[in-house]
Amino acid sequence: MRSLLIFTLVGAGAQLVDGALGMAFGVTATTLLVLSGVGAAQASAAVHLAEVGTTFASGLSHWKFKNIDWALVLKLGAPGAVGAFVGATVLSSLATEHAAPLMAAILVAIGTYVLLRFSLRTPLTFGARGTSHSAKFLAPLGLFGGFIDASGGGGWGPVTTSTLLSQGKTAPRTVIGSVSASEFLVSVSASLGFLIGLREEFLANWPVVVGLMVGGVVAAPFAAWLVSRVSPALLGTAVGGVIVLTNSQKLVHFFGIDWPWSSVIYGVIVVVWASLVFYAWRVSRAPRYAPEPGADAAATAGDTDSESVTR
Question: Which of 51, 206, 291, 303 is most buried, with most CB under 10 Å away?
Answer without folding.
Answer: 51
